[in-house]
Amino acid sequence: MLLKMKKICVVFIVLFMTFFVTANEYDDYKIGISYINDGFFEESERIFESLAENPKDPLLIDKVNYYLGISRLKLAKYETAVSCMAKAYRGKNQAVSANAGYYLAILYQLLENFNESDKVISGLAKESYSSQQKEKIAYMTVVNKIKLGSTTLAVESVKDYINSGYKENKNELLKELINYLIEIKDFNKSILYLEDLLTEPGLTRVERETAYFNLITILFKTEAYPDVVKY
Fold this sequence. Notes:
By secondary structure, this protein is mainly α. It has helices at residues 2-37, 41-53, 61-74, 78-89, 94-110, 114-122, 131-147, 151-163, 170-183, 187-198, 205-221, 225-230.
């Protein structure tokens, strides 16, 4: 009887200690979140790094890796941010995985690994994101296609971006695409997109003058002299 009571006490102590440790871990997790919200990313990195090194609650690990990745992203530690964000992306928590995939694509692009960024984006369930995130995903898709030298896909991606009604980065994308088309000497498409860019509001004087200069230069190169007169 005494031995049985001892066993029960041992089990109770183990369960209590497990609960106590898990509760402390969750408290640290909440403190880390508050640091992120307040912009103290060095402090949040320290907390989530500690939690990631010695996780007690398996249900929390995906969130820990995600917020560790966010902390390092904000601190411009892109290479180390990728590893923990990738773990969160491949984790079992689907809600965390979706957000992690979005930021993983951003991180790969910041590291100029456009192929991996493009791969991650192709696997995202885009309907699950906010309108702002969808716009960012569409923008990153165009940039990836341009940097990977996929001319046809880049042009199609720009069309998709414009047809979706996105405007925030439209001018930047058009300039990015135009520079790429000029670089590969696809002057016909360059002219089309330069003319499109010149109809856009919000261009600065320098941007507008640069667009006109590029357009006139290309028209001369292609010997489209009657069109030069228009500009």
